[in-house]
TrEMBL record:
Keywords, comma-separated and alphabetical: ATP-binding, Endosome, Magnesium, Membrane, Metal-binding, Nucleotide-binding, Phosphoprotein, Translocase, Transmembrane, Transmembrane helix
PROSITE patterns: ATPASE_E1_E2 (PS00154)
Transmembrane domains' residue ranges: 27-49, 232-253, 410-430, 450-469, 936-960, 966-989, 1001-1028, 1074-1092, 1104-1124, 1144-1164
Enzyme Commission no: 7.6.2.16
Domain of life: Eukaryota
Pfam families per record: Cation_ATPase, Cation_ATPase_N, E1-E2_ATPase, P5-ATPase
Gene Ontology molecular function, alphabetical: ABC-type putrescine transporter activity; ATP binding; metal ion binding
Domain P-type ATPase A per the UniProt entry, residue ranges: 272-396
Domain P5B-type ATPase N-terminal: 13-150
Membrane topology note: Multi-pass membrane protein
Family statement drawn from the similarity comment of this UniProt entry: Belongs to the cation transport ATPase (P-type) (TC 3.A.3) family. Type V subfamily.
The protein, known as: Polyamine-transporting ATPase 13A3
Predominant location: membrane
Length: 1226
């Protein structure tokens, strides 16, 4: 086998990884051990940080099949390395298992897909009982998932449950009987315990992990160095700071673990009943469940400990933990294809497509419905971390690294500082050798330069701004679980909004109905609750076709269904358990109109039994429900009017879908026009249909009939028109975003024209803008896929369609105002089906459509995520705002996801708003921008602090001097820490501006700003350092020097030689040191003020009172000790006395320095760009972001946007003149 082999696991999935095999090598291990000893343990740390080096340094390549260690690398842009140890699972240890057969199954890949018949498997095992030869399976665990070696595919693969490759038929035929105990034991051995374990690491473990962070190691190195150099005070200050930082970080990490642990622990261990093969029922702990077990759902409900598919009965489930919607959902049993009258073919079971039949882990079953004597049963399909909740927890435990330019640039910047430190390091060594300094001193001083250049306080300083922003967000009701993302939110330039409940009010109001009689629409009617209609099929459909249920006596269910049911004023009654037992079959839910609506009053019969005997009473029983499915866009029920022989089928759903399932002769001719009129006005339209079923369909047959058998050949009954009002704040918020040049996109599950209408109402599409509908059709009957382009009728009608070109395409803009390119005059709208076809067959068009796509209707949850990805692919920073219901994936994938629901689904989203209003979006972007600018300010300030101090020390090293211990302490603690923690306090600017903050540290203006300040500071420091030597009173300082007295005594010559060495062995007290100390102290404050920019992203710094007060106090203090020396302070800070006129001269140097610094910083924005573009040559700059570049290209593209009534075919662009035109919307 090839030793260099490389395989891929989880192919095509989000967590796809390359895998390499290694075996431990003794001689390599010996060499590494020696290296560790020689390097004083540093090599060990390096190998701890780099798993790839660790494995390669101690192991040799081996075939994956026989290796001891695997090295994994993600295939995404981050290329993260992991390593895992191969373990062996011995199968002979278990009394129930027959090792040979099991091992065969695993090696044959059977364990990977559990599709075999458990009973057969069991017989197969028992026959092999006698064999005792040892069998072992190789596996490794990565991110809480076990990967087993699979001989069939010659690779590792994780154990799948019944959620892949299992047909609906086999779930009934092979898995509905339950497992034998032997089979159960065997599976438990492989699948392990069914629990989502979030181990809360001990404080000690977390501490070790935190302390071994490269930065803390560097701080430890600095502290040891300072202690050898007797800088005890500053060392102590850094130790205290590090301890505070480590403790706060440990506290927040542990708190998150505990929170997650508590969230998961709720259902970790409950007692459940499972059915075994011989009909017996056994009670076991939920932790013992394995895929294939048949679980009995208790009457009074439970919290699901696993994912399971219902095969008997129905359940009402609260799925708010997963979806964010607190509306109870009705789950029905999986259709059994073998019993169906019209077979569905052998459809494969999939938890996503069959989610209406699947009970998900962590969701709460509120109550169950059942046949008498028959239990409500569900087959376990996934356990542990494979469940939907397990995957959610995994994504929180092992998040994808967020890639943000700021952090990448920060590392580059640190590298530059390290390079500068290297130069200083070499300079110090050479200078010290030339001046014949002791070796020990040389080592300490040269290493000291490194600790000065790379400031140990940097991480604390960088996070300060984010922590403050998080606190400000909390005040306005936005909670954040991923603080690093606050900075990224400052970059957002496109926000996707969900429509219902986000842009519009949550509930819908019934506006009216429009019935159809004899294939003709009647006039719209407002009141449905009247005697005329009470026995009509239309009202019967409204009364029965819903998924409402009574929970503790209160009607609950989908808000739309509730509104519809309330409009007719009927009463819903559900059977109690006793009644169900009495009638020996599942008792239907019964609906009936209130007494006063019935034409003739009948004698009151209150007891349920009497109701069945009084045919005069009009009531309808709901016999079977086919729940609403977003994929099918409809729901249907089979119902029966009391006393009728035949049953009725009622269906409601999206009008286009319903009309297509009705007899064409029952659909009015003007159906499309009427529908369009309503949807254009922004109404939500639902169509109803009905048909009588054949009398041969008995109650029992109906329970097993397939959906498709019922849902066809219907009679079209008319439309229900619901109104979905815009939220009050929506138009204003969207206008703010547009003014700030932030694009807005609508992603909704609703009808296309309704969505376009709402987009126009809320100002997302302006009245004069054109809307181009892209209708993509998949390849069919040998024809290629194609897109038909229609222009939706705009409000300002255009006289002839060719005039669109001149109007719709903006005049070519200068490249400076590229941002304005987004403000174009046409928008694309498409539905989810078209979006999928375009993604699959028109890859080259995707970026162009992303540039102007504004309305995406009828989008499924995974399509929302794909849309966010497509937008990110053209370099947009995407925000997503949704109510958490079906937006989880998109909220997680976006750069900044804000969930408007406070339910547990908000775990998926980095931000959660307490108030369900989109006004949180501009607030979050403002705070993000402020935090981003704060990060830049702090970074620039820290860079200058290290360079100023580095230069001060380098200048003083040249005369074999240095800054004193208390001078360092004063600069680092009193000036730097105070300034850094107060300069981050600037609140965000009041409104969003069109200008956008730079995305990285390495941008023209920023580099220009930092470099110019470095040059200014170095210049003025050097000026002071060399000028003091030119003063008439200057001399090499000694204890008896007295430059303050102009009448200087002359006896010092003889004495200074022996005194100096005794008193100041470090040679700290001298005129140069004092001059450099004063000038540099002022320089820190000058750059702090210069860099504390306010507008347009933050409030001006004079409004940051803490900062202003701190800076004033520091200025006053330094001025005071400079102009009016105090003996005790001078003694502590080791400052020497200098003549008064030199003090005034230093003040003038400082004032000029301040003036120059602030003037240069003020001119950075206009001048920085000019200088940099001049330096880079006068070539025309290609915009960095793909979408800007694309916008430039499209301006000169005569074929774009597509003309109305044209068709684009896959692989070729065809202009049709009339042969292939599609009827357009007019």
């Amino acid at each position: 086998m090839d030793k260099e082999e490389r395989k891929t696991i989880n192919q095509g999935q989000e967590d796809e990884m390359e895998i390499y095999g290694y075996n431990l090598s003794r001689w390599k291990l010996a060499i590494v051990s020696l290296g560790v000893i020689c390097s004083g343990g540093f090599l060990l740390l390096l190998l701890y940080w780099m798993p790839e080096w660790r494995v390669k340094a101690t192991c040799i390549r081996a075939a994956i099949k026989d290796c001891e260690v695997v090295l994994l690398r993600t295939t995404d842009e981050f290329r993260v390395w992991f390593c895992a140890k191969i373990r062996l699972l011995s199968l002979e240890t278990h009394p129930f298992s027959s090792p040979k057969s099991i091992a065969n199954k695993v090696s044959n890949g059977h364990a990977v897909h559990l599709t075999e018949n458990p009973a057969e498997e069991n017989r197969h095992e028992l026959s092999k009982y006698s064999q005792t030869q040892s069998q072992e399976i190789r596996y490794f665990t990565h991110h809480s998932v076990k990967y087993f070696w699979n001989d069939t595919i010659h690779n590792f693969d994780f154990l799948k449950g019944l959620d892949e490759g299992v047909s609906c038929t086999s779930i009934y035929e092979k898995h509905s009987a339950g497992l034998t105990k032997g089979m159960h034991a065997y599976r438990k051995l492989l699948y392990g315990v069914n629990e989502i374990t979030v181990k809360v690491p001990s404080v000690f473990k977390l501490l070790i992990k935190e302390v071994l962070n490269p930065f803390y190691i560097f701080q430890l190195f600095s502290v040891i160095l300072w202690c050898t150099d007797e800088y005890y005070y500053y060392a102590l200050a850094i130790v205290i700071m590090s301890i505070v930082s480590i403790v706060s970080s440990l506290y927040s990490i542990r708190k998150q673990y505990v929170m997650l642990h508590d969230m998961v622990a709720a259902h970790s261990t409950v007692r459940v009943s499972v059915c075994r093969v011989n009909e017996e029922i056994e009670e076991i702990f939920s932790t013992d469940l394995v895929p294939g077990d048949v679980m009995v759902i208790p009457l009074n409900g439970t919290i699901m400990p696993c994912d399971a598919v219902l095969i008997n009965g129905t359940c009402i489930v609260n799925e708010s933990m997963l979806t964010g919607e607190s509306v109870p959902v009705t789950k029905t049993n999986l259709p059994n294809p073998s019993v169906d009258i019209k077979g569905m073919g052998d459809e494969l079971y999939n938890p996503e497509t069959h989610k209406r039949h699947t009970l998900f882990c962590g969701t709460t079953v509120i109550q169950t419905r059942f046949y008498t004597g028959e239990l409500v049963k569900a087959v376990v399909v996934r356990t542990g971390f494979s469940t939907s909740k397990g995957q959610l927890v995994r994504s929180i435990l092992y998040p994808k690294p967020t890639d943000f330019k700021l952090y990448r640039d920060a590392y580059l910047f640190l590298l530059c500082l390290v390079a500068v430190a290297g130069i200083g390091f070499i300079y110090t060594i050479i200078n010290s050798i030339l001046n014949e300094v002791e070796v020990g001193v040389i080592i300490i001083e040269s290493l000291d330069i490194i600790t000065i250049t790379v400031p140990p306080a940097l991480p604390a300083a960088m996070t300060a701004g984010i922590v403050y922003a998080q606190r400000r967000l909390k005040k306005i009701g936005i909670f954040c679980i991923s603080p690093q993302r606050i900075n990224i939110c400052g970059q957002l330039n496109l926000v996707c909004f969900d429509k219902t409940g986000t842009l519009t009010e949550d509930g819908l109001d019934l506006w009216g109905i429009q019935r159809v009689e004899n294939a003709r629409f009647l006039l719209p009617e407002e009141n449905v609750c009247n005697e005329m209609l009470v026995k009509s099929q239309f009202v019967a459909c409204m009364a029965t076709c819903h998924s409402l249920t009574k929970i503790e006596g209160v009607l609950s269910g989908d808000p739309l269904d509730l509104k519809m049911f309330e409009a007719i004023g009927w009463i819903l009654e559900e059977a109690t358990e006793e009644e169900t037992a009495l009638h020996n079959r599942i008792m239907p839910t019964v609906v009936r109109p209130p007494k006063q609506l019935l034409p003739e009053s009948t004698p009151a019969g209150n007891q349920e039994m009497e109701l069945f005997e009084l045919p005069a009473i009009y009531e309808i029983g709901i016999v079977r429900q086919f729940p609403f499915s977003s994929a099918l866009q409809r729901m249907s029920v089979v119902a029966r009017v009391l006393g009728d022989k035949k049953m009725d089928a009622y269906m409601k759903g999206a009008p286009e879908v319903i009309a297509s399932l009705c007899k064409p002769e029952t659909v009015p001719v003007d159906f499309e026009k009427v529908l369009e009129d309503f949807t254009k006005q922004g109404f939500r339209v639902i169509a109803l249909a009905h048909r009588k079923l054949e009398s041969k369909l008995t109650w029992h047959k109906v329970q097993n009939i397939s959906r498709d058998t019922i849902e066809n050949n219907m009679d079209f009954m008319g439309l229900i028109i619901m109104q979905n009002k815009l939220k009050q704040e929506t138009p204003a918020v969207l206008e703010d975003l547009h003014k700030a040049n932030i694009r807005t996109v609508m992603v909704t599950g609703d009808n296309m024209l309704t969505a376009v209408s709402v987009a126009r109402d809320c100002g997302m599409i302006l009245p004069q803008d054109k809307v181009i509908i892209a209708e993509a059709l998949p390849p069919k009957d040998g024809k290629v896929a194609k897109i038909n382009w229609h222009y939706a009728d705009s409000l300002t009608q255009c006289s002839d369609s060719s005039a669109i070109n001149s109007e719709a395409i903006p005049i070519k803009l200068v490249h400076d105002s590229l941002e304005d390119l987004q403000v174009t005059r046409y928008h694309f709208a498409m539905n989810g089906k078209s979006f999928s076809v375009i993604l699959e067959h028109f890859q080259d068009l995707v970026p162009k459509l992303m540039l102007h796509g504004t309305v995406f209707a009828r989008m499924a949850p995974d399509q929302k995520t794909q849309l966010v990805e497509a937008l990110q692919n053209v370099d947009y920073f995407v925000g997503m705002c949704g109510d958490g219901a079906n937006d989880c994936g998109a909220l997680k994938r976006a750069h900044g996801g804000i969930s408007l629901s406070e339910l547990e689904a908000s775990v998926a989203s980095p931000f959660t708003s307490k108030t369900p209003s989109i006004s949180c979006v501009p607030n979050l972007i403002r705070e993000g921008r402020a935090a981003l600018i704060t990060s830049f300010c702090v970074f620039k300030f820290m860079a200058l602090y290290s360079i100023i101090q580095y230069f001060s020390v380098t200048l003083l090293y040249s005369i074999l001097s240095n800054l004193g211990d208390f001078q360092f302490l004063f600069i680092d603690l009193a000036i730097i820490l105070v300034v850094v923690f107060t300069m981050s306090l600037n609140p965000a600017w009041k409104e969003l501006v069109a200008q956008r903050p730079p995305s990285g540290l390495i941008s023209g203006a920023l580099l220009f700003s930092v470099l110019s300040q470095i040059i200014i500071c170095i210049g003025f420091q050097s000026l002071g350092f060399f000028w003091v030597k030119q003063q008439p009173w200057y001399e090499v300082w000694h204890p008896h020097s007295d430059a303050c007295n102009t009448t200087r005594s002359l006896y010092w010559n003889s004495s200074h030689l022996y005194n100096e060495t005794e008193l100041d062995e470090h040679n700290i007290q001298n005129y140069e040191n004092t001059t450099v100390f004063f000038i540099s102290s002022f320089q820190y404050l000058i750059v702090a003020i210069a860099f504390s920019k306010g507008k347009p992203f933050r409030q001006p710094c004079y409004k940051n009172y803490f900062f202003v007060v701190s800076v004033i106090i520091l200025y006053v203090f330094i001025l005071f000790i400079m102009l009016h020396p105090v003996a005790s302070i001078d003694q502590v800070l080791q400052i020497v006395c200098v003549p008064y006129q030199w003090r005034v001269t230093m003040l003038i140097i400082v004032l000029v320095n301040a003036f120059v610094s602030i003037m240069v910083e003020a001119s950075v924005d206009p001048w920085g760009k000019c200088c940099l573009s001049w330096a880079l040559g006068c070539r025309k700059k290609i915009p960095k972001a793909k979408y800007m570049y694309l916008a430039q290209e499209l301006l000169v593209d005569p074929e774009w946007p597509p003309k109305p009534q044209t068709t684009t075919e896959a692989k070729a662009l065809v202009k049709e003149n009339g042969s292939c035109q599609i009827i357009t919307i007019t």
